[in-house]
């Protein structure tokens, strides 16, 4: 829905767009102590892909990117193998090779999720430019981590860091504190008629 200009906003007209500027919100953003938070959620394919795309863009500008993957433990996936080719890019996995039973996660799933969160906290202390927490939304939705613990991590990121959270079923509390939230909707997919995951496309 398009924002409507109010007394608090002013309008910038250009050849290409109309932009509504809320100076109060911009001032709050500038004085805030933490960095920007992006969220990619929804039932469609492309959430991790979008996050990695932002990371790649940052790498292109000489920035450091760290990816912490939850519920994933497959070292042959493209984003993990890309570490051999890219500088300033690291991927750490906290998951098993097999998929998690979302209705009945086991003890190891809980332990790996907690390890991943603690590792992410340590990464923040090293101040990478971009930190991607892949699938953390579904981790919270499944109950492997508490949303308040993730909110605590979000509020701890330094002002010059970008934090990206992916995964379906994002918690409303995370939406509230995020700066950019995008919903990826499944309209059609090759999986619908029996095609298996394809190398370099789905993994």
Describe the structure concisely.
This protein is of the alpha/beta class and 203 residues long. It has helices at 23-31, 47-60, 78-81, 107-126, 136-142, 147-154, 172-177, and strands at residues 9-13, 18-22, 37-41, 65-70, 89-94, 130-134, 162-166, 180-183.
Structure keywords:
33% helix; 7 helices; Rossmann fold; 8 strands; disordered N terminus; two-stranded antiparallel sheet
Walkthrough of the structure:
This protein is an alpha/beta fold. It has two domains: 1-31, no CATH class; 34-185, P-loop containing nucleotide triphosphate hydrolases (Rossmann fold, 3-Layer(aba) Sandwich), CATH 3.40.50. 33% of the residues lie in helices and 20% in strands. The protein has seven helices and eight strands; from the N terminus they run E-E-H-E-H-E-H-E-H-E-H-H-E-H-E. It has helices at 23-31, 47-60, 78-81, 107-126, 136-142, 147-154, 172-177, and strands spanning 9-13, 18-22, 37-41, 65-70, 89-94, 130-134, 162-166, 180-183. The protein has a six-stranded parallel beta sheet with strand order 5-4-6-7-3-8, sandwiched between helices. A two-stranded antiparallel ribbon has the order 1-2. Strand 4, helix 3 (78-81) and strand 5 (89-94) form a beta-alpha-beta unit. The two termini are 34 Å apart. 27% of the residues are buried. Residues 1-6 have low confidence and may be disordered.
């Amino acid at each position: 829905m398009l924002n409507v200009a109010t007394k608090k906003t002013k309008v910038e007209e250009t050849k290409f767009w109309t932009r509504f500027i809320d100076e109060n919100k911009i001032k709050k953003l500038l004085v805030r102590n933490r960095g920007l938070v992006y969220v990619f959620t929804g039932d469609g394919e492309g959430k991790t892909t979008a996050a990695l795309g932002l990371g790649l863009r940052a790498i292109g500008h000489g920035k450091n990117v760290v990816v912490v993957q939850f519920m994933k433990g497959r070292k042959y996936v493209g984003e993990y193998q890309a570490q051999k080719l890219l500088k300033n890019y690291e991927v750490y996995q906290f998951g098993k090779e097999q998929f998690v039973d979302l209705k009945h996660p086991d003890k190891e799933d809980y332990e790996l999720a907690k390890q991943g969160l603690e590792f992410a906290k340590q990464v923040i202390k090293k101040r990478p430019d971009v930190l991607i927490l892949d699938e953390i939304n579904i981790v919270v939705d499944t109950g492997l981590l508490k949303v308040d613990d993730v909110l605590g991590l979000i509020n701890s990121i330094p002002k010059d860091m970008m934090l990206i959270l992916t995964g379906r079923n994002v918690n409303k509390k995370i939406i509230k504190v995020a700066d950019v939230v995008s919903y990826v909707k499944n309209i059609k997919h090759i999986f619908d008629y029996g095609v298996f995951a394809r190398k370099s496309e789905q993994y």
